[in-house]
Structure formats: structure tokens, C-alpha cells
Amino acid sequence: MSTSLPEQTSPPGDPLDRLPLRERKKLRTRRAIQEHALRLFLDQGYDATTVEQVAAAAEVSPSTVFRYFPTKEDLVVTDEYDPVMTEFFRSQPADLTPLEALRATFRQVFPYLDAQDRATMVARTRMMLEVPALRARMIDSMRSGTLGVVAELVGERTGRAPDDRRVQAFAWAVMGVLQAAMYAWLDSDATLDLAALVDANLEFLAEGLPL
């Protein structure tokens, strides 16, 4: 497999610029390691690539790779979007409902991701769907990662605990419509507007999923 990814940059307007300096440095290091890993996975195949090769390409030690990515699978599954989403969500006006705040957040974040990370997002998602170990890790990561972030943010905005039954149901519903948008985007070979798909699905959820 010889598909290549474009060089990733951090242009003006990078959402990471809104994070604290220490968090930005950590995320940019993680981004660089992951970029090298994805290039090797695409060139050599996931199973044929070792963490040691990723470390050598990124010019870091294997222990540094594992500091940022506890497992090899995390080199594909992990992304930097949860802390960025958290920063944008918390900046939304207090009078917005959780769904309105999420829609506003994604409207701000997705255009950047679509412009800068389209090839990376497609490559990562396709690998997660095609490699059994990655599919399993993706499900675990979704539950312990983005789902938990959504529940925490919704809990903050509504004054409920993140493990509140209704908060959890809301978070799972959000994850469901996000995944539906992602699959539709992939099925179109990433030609559709991902931000518009996500927004339409969240709007449908806000309407109560009428059919």
C-alpha cells in the first residue's frame, strides 16, 4: 500500500492554539508521532509495522511512543479532538441547550479538521474498520474517551452527574448520530461535507428522530 499523507501543519486558527501551552506541546508531540505511524502503516501495512519502527521514524524512543500511546492500536485510534471539542464546548453561551452547544462546537471544529486532516481522518477510519484489533480498540476507546467527554460536558451544562442515566443516554445518542454521519461520509469516499452531515444528524436528534 503506497498511499501517502500530506504533511501536517499548524496554521493560524489551529484549534490547539486555544489550549494551555503545556497541553498544546503534548498534543503536538502526539500528533507528530501519530503522523509517522500512519505513514508507515499505509506504506508497510499495520501488522508489518513495529512500534520500534515508528519511534525511529519520529526520532523518539519506544518508551516515549508508549507514553503517548499505551498500545500500538492507540497509534491509530487516539486523536486530539476531544480536548479541542471540550475547549470549544465550554466557550459556548450559557443559554444554549447541550445539543445547541454541541452543534455550535462542531460547526467551529469540523471545518478546520476537514481542511487540514481529511486524508488522515480517512486513513485512520478505514484502518479502524479493516483491522480486527483496531475495531475492538475503537469500541473501547469510544466508550472510555469521547463518550465520557460528552457526558462530562453535558453534565456540567445541566448540573447533572456524568453517570446520570439520562446524561448517559444522551451521550450514547450523540455518539450514534456522529457514527452515522462518519459512515455516510466514508461511503461517499469523503466527498460529502462531514460538518454538514454531523449538523444534520444532530438537528434530527434535537427534533426527536421523527420518521
TrEMBL record:
Region span, Disordered: 1-23
Name of the protein this chain belongs to: AcrR family transcriptional regulator
UniProt keyword DNA-binding, yes or no: yes
Domain HTH tetR-type, chain residue ranges per copy: 27-87
Keywords attached to this entry: DNA-binding, Transcription, Transcription regulation
InterPro entries, alphabetized: Homeodomain-like_sf (IPR009057), HTH-type_TetR-like_transc_reg (IPR050109), HTH_TetR (IPR001647), MftR_C (IPR041347), Tet_transcr_reg_TetR-rel_C_sf (IPR036271)
Species of the source: Actinomadura namibiensis
Source species, domain of life: Bacteria
DNA-binding region coordinates: 50-69
Compositionally skewed regions (Polar residues) per UniProt: 1-10
Annotated GO MF terms: DNA-binding transcription factor activity; transcription cis-regulatory region binding
Pfam families listed in its UniProt record: TetR_C_14, TetR_N
